[in-house]
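hiii, so i know i said id send this last week but things got crazy w the move. better late than never?? heres the sequnce for the chain we talked about at the cafe, plus the structure i predicted for it. fair warning i was half asleep when i ran it
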Amino acid sequence: MTKSIVTCRGVGKSFGSGELEVHALRDVDLEIMQGDFATLAGPSGSGKTTLLNMIGALDSPTTGEVEIDGMNLSGMNKADLSDLRLNKIGFVFQAYNLIPVLSAEENIEFVLELQGCPADERRRRAVDVLKEVGLDGMGHRRPSALSGGQQQRVAVARALVSHPSIVLADEPTANLDSTTTGELVGLMSRLNQDLGITFVIGTHDPRVMEHSKRHIELLDGRISSDTRA
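okay and structure toks below
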C-alpha cells in the first residue's frame, strides 16, 4: 500500500498584520503519496513557493498543520526541524547552491558528513549517485568547471544521496536551456520511475509539467485543481 509522505491539513500562511496582512495560503489540504511525481504551479503570488517552504519545513504555517513521513512539524523545535530536513528531505534549488570551493563529489559528501556517515561510505555513495545522474568520472570537478546543467545534476545527486523521503525542487530548470531542461526532467522522471523517489517540483515550465504524474495548480493561496495523468 502506498503511504503518505506529506500531509497538509487546513494550512494557512499570513504575512504582516492589519491592513498590510497578506494571506499567502488559505486552508490548504494536500497529501503527497510515496512515488508521486508532482508539479506545483500557479501565477506569481499564488502561494507556490510558500507551500513548498511549508512542505520543506523551512517555514511554519500560521494555521493548520503539516506532517512529513508521519511526523507532525508543529511540535518540533529548531533542532528537530533541522534534523528532519537533513534526514527526510532533499532540496534542489534554482540557483544550484553548490559550495564553489568543493568538488562535485565533496559537495555531495557534505550532506553525508553532516549525518555522521563514515568517510569510506560517503565516498562510495557519492561516486554511485554521480553515476546515477550521468556524471561518472566528473566528481573531481569544481562547480566552475561544470556547465549549468551539470551543476544542477550535482544538486540532484546531493538531494538524493541521503536517501530522503521526498525531493523538493523549486524552479530547477529556470536557468537552463531547452536541451538541458529536457535532459534534467528526463533524469528526474527516470529516478522516480526506476527508484520510486518522490518528487514535488515547483515550476512554470510546461516541459516539466508534461512529465508529471500529478499536476497541482494554486490560485490566490488555494489549490484550484489537482489532477493525475
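btw The mean pLDDT is 92. thought thatd interest u
miss u guys!!
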